Amino acid sequence: MTDRVWNGCVVPDDRLYDVDMHVWVMLDGDEAVLGMTDVAQSMGGRIVQVTWKRPGRQLTRGRPVAVVESAKWVGPFPTPLSGELVAVNTEGFNRDPNIANRDPYQAGWMARIRPRHLDEERTHLVDGVQAYQRYQRFINDNDIRCYRCAD
Predict the structure, then answer these.
(1) What is the pTM of this model?
(2) What's the fold here for domain 17-126?
(3) Tens of pLDDT, residues 35-49
């Protein structure tokens, strides 16, 4: 896995991204693992609480999988793909509410979805190289510096 870094913000090459939603996607068989990008966790700040939708629900692209409450923001974590919500990372966030602040691309994953319209909705996703290019502009335009929460 290659990580591209701009102003401290990491964008791994091995994922797909919906940059507008600040969500990464990793396809895993017939499922997709979703998480917030490094830019998203930095903009939101230290996560305080996550309220999850129940697995088994059918979700539509753009609708929330969870509501994230941080030190400076409360808002939805949207799904970039329609489909069945298979799992959420309740255990990880119960052990460490800041898990997505510390490790947004691995242990801090948010949800697993079984996509319903992957071929159609994949057109909204970009690869890591394109995401990095778009994030460079976004980071510069919004004067963002990414950081990770320390223990």
Answers:
(1) 0.93
(2) OB fold (Dihydrolipoamide Acetyltransferase, E2P) (2.40.50)
(3) 999 999 999 989 999
